[in-house]
């Protein structure tokens, strides 16, 4: 089987229902936009291959349902994720307030070293804005997370967001590899390490 | 006498007596008659004696007179005095008389003058009366002439002509000796010519104005036909459908009925418009009453009178034919607005209303044949024009309005007795076009509904909302009714929307059939056919498009399956709906059924297919992430990541779409497993994988076990026993054969129904075996295994040989 990529990064989109997770993914994977809101049922994914530093990276991006009733299914996907996008809607206060809960969810269910990023979506609808950019930035800084305001509709910062997250994962990966070469490394990351031993990116670098 | 003696004495006595008598006679007789007496005296002999006697008598008388005078002297004197007095009086009287006479004479002179004057007057009087008599004879002539002038001036040429005739034949001969009459007589032909010219120019003006006002006339006629129809509608209280035939009859009958004054037919006999029918309904005067036809009649009469009727007829018909051609030439942008059509129709109606009126009010200025010929031309041209122009129409409302207009147009002209069947045939063509337009429009409507749907079950918070939805769409579910609010309908918004739009479409179809004089069966048939087209072509395409669209996800597909199931169930209500509208029972008449059921079934099947495809694509995407190390010496401790993810994805997907119909869920699950199994097999047998180790195969086996575990766990309910696991059985037998290296069993039992490896194809086995053989050869760096390896190699060769012969025997 011919190798079609060098790394596989699994990303996860979480956030309240209706903040535009599916649209962000649709914009990123198909470069298109759909105005009608069709709420995601359970979980879905899209794959897009990007290039970073001459490496082909497959991004398998999982799109979760924001609705509470699918929570058990969606949280099952936290653990395998290497990067998580926390999405809120700048025209919806509540979705922003809930980011804290989503972060708590991540802490509970995801790997501890998962890369995170906060996205304030629908920034094209400035006239309906309820959450200032500064507020979003402040929250991101508080948690030590990167932040971007995006618009799936107007295609603002969507590419940047996913590329940033992918690059952060890449950086972390490289650092970890360097750590790995020195004996005695381990700690809480061990499980992940073991898991990733079989996963592509490790072997790719070895080859 | 006594003196005479004896005899003498006697004689003397007689003579004396005789004298005495004579004397007495003289005294008593009138002097005039004295002659004879005197004669008797002369005849006697005794004159002397008589003389004596007479003397004696005179003396006697004198004495008596004397005595008398003496006696009456005083009286005499008195008398004289009296007489003298009388003489004075008489003189006076005489003077008086003279005076009176003189006076009389002077008085009489005046009288004579008066008499003279009187005489003169009498004469004058006689003259005057003679003059008057003559004038009485002449005046009517002059009056007639002046009336003629007046009539000429006021352009009443026909009366003028009549007057002229009257003048010529009645009045002028009576007084022909006058010079002015002579002038008049001379003038008569000139006047006739003038009237002829003027009336012709009037006619030309008329023709010009009628051309200009045709549309106004037409408009009025159409309006009246409309009013008539409305009236009929009210009277008959009949629904328009099926009632059409009745109306037609009414119109035909109205020509015979005096009651229907307002109908155009009855007014056709009203005659020349100059004679106004006061009692005729004033609020609804005939369209032709807008026109003053008098120029035509006048001109016709004038020409008839002048003996040039034929010329006139020819001229009139030729001009009108020209006008007809102009009228029938539709404006090139007619199709753009209804007004364009309306103007066109108005002109045509106007034209024929006028011709019809002319036909009925003139004797033969136009005849049936001429009108029929014109009408035929009009029909063919109108229909051709309509055909061309209506084909540009894309607005159903315009098409509908156009149809109503054509119906009105046809009805109006039918009211005037023109055959309009061809127009109704034409309408059927337009109906087909209208249907096409409707289909196109509703195609868009459906597309919008489907595009804007959120493909989520409709949530209802309270009874009111629940009833609203149930009112829009026939749905009954006792289970759902029992549930407390808030709850959800199983289908999404597009179900009631699509259902209602189908109904709207049916209404729109129905609208066209109104007033077409169609039977309810025909209407029913038409509605069903159109609705079937809508369902099988438009709605079906729209659904298929959504289903086949690249970004349609499982959510939408699953909801489409549920939605179409409900729409399918609603088809019988649509049937009922149509039946209620048309009153045609589907059982009683041979009618086409609605194909809604098949449409929704097809859509559902397509959606189901798409779900299977969609799942398979997801599986393919996962498999692209597969990254086996085919040269691995040892297998890993657990299934590959991608496969674990894949199985988890399938698991959660089936867990989430619980509202998917059981069969579909089972099929989807089975198809996914089969696809996964086939894909995994392909991955293993891929030509690019030249070699593989047992370790790799064991890792692969771990993955397949994971799949089997999934199949065993019953991801969707309803599978009997290990049905789902059968999806992996081929792969399982193949892996078992290789991992257990059980070639003797395989080869020994080959072809037997009880064979453990019944499903392992020798070709497949050989392909895989070749890959393992290659591995063994290249791995011979490990010297200590050399002998083992050699044996193993030999076994592989032997097995391969056996397999080849099996394959060959198969092919023989």
UniProtKB/TrEMBL annotation, chain A:
GO terms for molecular function: G protein activity; GTP binding. GO terms for cellular component: cilium; phagocytic vesicle membrane; recycling endosome membrane. It catalyses: GTP + H2O = GDP + phosphate + H(+). Its EC number is 3.6.5.2. It is a lipid-anchor. InterPro entries: P-loop_NTPase (IPR027417), Small_GTP-bd (IPR005225), Small_GTPase (IPR001806), Small_GTPase_Rab (IPR050305). One of its GO terms (biological process) is protein transport. Its main location: other. Its cofactor is Mg(2+). CDD domains: Rab8_Rab10_Rab13_like. It is found in: Cell projection, Cilium; Cytoplasmic vesicle membrane; Cytoplasmic vesicle, Phagosome membrane; Recycling endosome membrane. SMART domains: ARF, RAB, RAN, RAS, RHO. Keywords: Cytoplasmic vesicle, GTP-binding, Lipoprotein, Membrane, Nucleotide-binding, Prenylation, Protein transport, Transport. Belongs to the small GTPase superfamily. Rab family. This is small monomeric GTPase. It comes from Pelusios castaneus (West African mud turtle).
UniProtKB/TrEMBL annotation, chain B:
GO terms for cellular component: exocyst; plasma membrane. Keywords: Coiled coil, Exocytosis, Transport. Residues 51-110 form a coiled coil. It comes from the Eukaryota. Residues 422-771 form the Exocyst complex subunit EXOC6/Sec15 C-terminal domain. InterPro entries: EXOC6/Sec15, EXOC6/Sec15_C, EXOC6/Sec15_C_dom1, EXOC6_Sec15_N, EXOC6PINT-1/Sec15/Tip20_C_dom2. One of its GO terms (biological process) is vesicle tethering involved in exocytosis. The keyword Transport applies. Component of the exocyst complex involved in the docking of exocytic vesicles with fusion sites on the plasma membrane. Belongs to the SEC15 family. This is Exocyst complex component. The lineage of its organism: Eukaryota, Metazoa, Chordata, Craniata, Vertebrata.
């Amino acid at each position: 089987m011919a190798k079609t990529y060098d790394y596989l990064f699994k990303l996860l989109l979480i956030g309240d229902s209706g903040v535009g997770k599916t649209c962000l993914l649709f914009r990123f994977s198909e470069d298109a936009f759909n105005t009608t809101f069709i709420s995601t049922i359970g979980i879905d994914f899209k794959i897009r291959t990007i290039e970073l530093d001459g490496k082909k990276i497959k991004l398998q991006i999982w799109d979760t349902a924001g609705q509470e009733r699918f929570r058990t299914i969606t949280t099952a996907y936290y653990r395998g994720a290497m990067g998580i996008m926390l999405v809120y809607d700048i025209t919806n206060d509540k979705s922003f307030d809930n980011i804290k809960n989503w972060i708590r969810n991540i802490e509970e269910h995801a790997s501890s070293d998962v890369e995170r990023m906060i996205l304030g979506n629908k920034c094209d609808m400035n006239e309906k804005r309820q959450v200032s950019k500064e507020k979003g930035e402040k929250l991101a800084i508080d948690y030590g997370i990167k932040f971007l305001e995006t618009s799936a509709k107007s295609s603002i910062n969507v590419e940047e967001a996913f590329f940033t997250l992918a690059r952060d994962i890449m950086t972390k990966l490289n650092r970890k590899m360097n750590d790995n070469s020195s004996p005695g490394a381990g700690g809480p990351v061990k499980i992940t390490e073991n898991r990733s031993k079989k996963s592509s990116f490790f072997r790719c670098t070895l080859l | 006498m006594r003196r005479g003696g004896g005899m003498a004495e006697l004689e003397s006595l007689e003579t004396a007596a005789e004298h005495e008598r004579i004397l007495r006679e003289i005294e008593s007789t009138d002097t005039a008659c004295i002659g004879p007496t005197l004669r008797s005296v002369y005849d006697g002999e005794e004159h002397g004696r008589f003389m004596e006697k007479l003397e004696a008598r005179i003396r006697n008388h004198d004495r008596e007179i004397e005595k008398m005078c003496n006696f009456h002297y005083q009286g005499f004197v008195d008398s004289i005095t009296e007489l003298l007095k009388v003489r004075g009086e008489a003189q006076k009287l005489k003077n008086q008389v003279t005076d009176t006479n003189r006076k009389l004479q002077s008085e009489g002179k005046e009288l004579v003058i008066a008499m003279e004057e009187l005489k003169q007057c009498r004469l004058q009087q006689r003259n005057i009366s003679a003059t008057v008599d003559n004038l009485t004879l002449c005046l009517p002539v002059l009056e007639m002439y002046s009336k003629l002038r007046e009539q000429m001036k006021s352009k009443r040429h026909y009366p003028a002509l009549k007057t002229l005739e009257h003048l010529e034949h009645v009045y002028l001969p009576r007084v022909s000796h006058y010079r002015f009459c002579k002038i008049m007589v001379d003038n008569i032909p000139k006047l006739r010519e003038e009237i002829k010219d003027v009336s012709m120019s009037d006619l030309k003006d008329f023709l010009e104005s009628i051309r200009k006002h045709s549309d106004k006339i037409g408009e009025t006629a159409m309006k009246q036909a409309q009013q008539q129809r409305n009236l009929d509608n009210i009277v008959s209280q009949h629904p328009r459908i099926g009632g059409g035939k009745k109306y037609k009859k009414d119109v035909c009958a109205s020509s015979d009925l005096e009651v229907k004054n307002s109908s155009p037919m009855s007014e056709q006999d009203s005659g020349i418009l100059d004679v106004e029918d006061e009692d005729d309904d004033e609020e609804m005067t005939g369209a032709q009453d807008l026109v003053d036809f008098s120029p035509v009649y006048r001109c016709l009469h004038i020409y008839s009178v002048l003996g040039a009727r034929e010329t006139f007829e020819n001229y009139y018909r030729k001009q009108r034919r020209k006008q007809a051609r102009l009228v029938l030439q539709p404006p090139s942008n007619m199709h753009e607005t209804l007004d364009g059509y309306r103007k066109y129709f108005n002109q045509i109606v106007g034209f024929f209303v006028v011709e019809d009126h002319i036909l009925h009010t003139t004797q033969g200025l136009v005849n049936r044949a001429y009108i029929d010929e014109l009408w035929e031309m009009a029909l063919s041209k109108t229909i051709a024009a309509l055909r061309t122009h209506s084909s540009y129409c894309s607005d159903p409302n315009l098409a509908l309005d156009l149809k109503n207009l054509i119906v009105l147009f046809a009805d109006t002209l039918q009211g005037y007795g023109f055959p309009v069947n061809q127009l109704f045939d034409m309408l059927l063509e337009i109906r087909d076009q209208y249907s096409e337009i409707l289909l196109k429009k509703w195609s868009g409507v459906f597309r919008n509904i489907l595009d804007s749907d959120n493909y989520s079950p409709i949530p209802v918070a309270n009874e009111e909302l629940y009833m609203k939805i149930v009112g829009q769409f026939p749905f009954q579910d006792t289970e759902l009714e029992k549930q407390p609010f808030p709850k959800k309908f199983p289908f999404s918004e597009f179900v009631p929307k699509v259902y209602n739009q189908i109904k709207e479409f049916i209404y729109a179809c129905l609208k066209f059939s109104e007033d077409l004089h169609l039977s309810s069966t025909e209407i029913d048939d038409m509605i069903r056919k159109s609705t079937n087209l809508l369902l099988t072509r438009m709605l079906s395409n729209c659904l298929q498009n959504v289903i086949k669209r690249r970004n349609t996800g499982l959510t939408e597909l699953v909801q489409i399956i549920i939605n179409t199931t409900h729409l399918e169930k609603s088809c019988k209500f649509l049937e009922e709906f149509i039946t209620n509208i048309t009153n045609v029972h589907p059982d009683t008449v041979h009618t086409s059924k609605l194909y809604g059921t098949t449409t929704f079934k097809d859509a559902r099947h397509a959606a189901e297919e798409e779900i299977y495809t969609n799942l398979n694509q997801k599986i393919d995407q996962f498999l692209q992430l597969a990254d086996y190390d085919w040269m691995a010496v040892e297998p890993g401790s657990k299934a590959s990541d991608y496969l674990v993810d894949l199985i988890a994805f399938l698991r959660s997907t089936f867990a989430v779409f619980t509202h998917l119909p059981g069969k579909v869920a089972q099929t989807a699950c089975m198809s996914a497993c089969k696809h996964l199994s086939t894909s995994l097999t392909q991955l293993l047998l891929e030509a690019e994988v030249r070699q593989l180790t047992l370790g790799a195969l064991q890792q692969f086996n771990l993955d397949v076990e994971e799949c089997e575990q999934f199949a065993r766990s019953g991801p969707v309910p309803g599978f009997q026993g290990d049905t789902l696991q059968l999806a992996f059985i081929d792969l399982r037998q193949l892996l078992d054969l290789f991992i257990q290296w059980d070639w003797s069993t395989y080869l020994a039992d080959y072809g037997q129904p009880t064979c453990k490896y019944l499903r392992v194809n020798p070709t497949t086995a050989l392909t895989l075996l070749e890959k393992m053989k290659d591995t063994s050869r290249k791995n011979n760096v490990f010297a200590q295994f050399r002998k083992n390896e050699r044996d193993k190699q030999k076994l592989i060769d032997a097995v391969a040989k056996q397999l080849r012969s099996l394959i060959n025997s198969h092919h023989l």
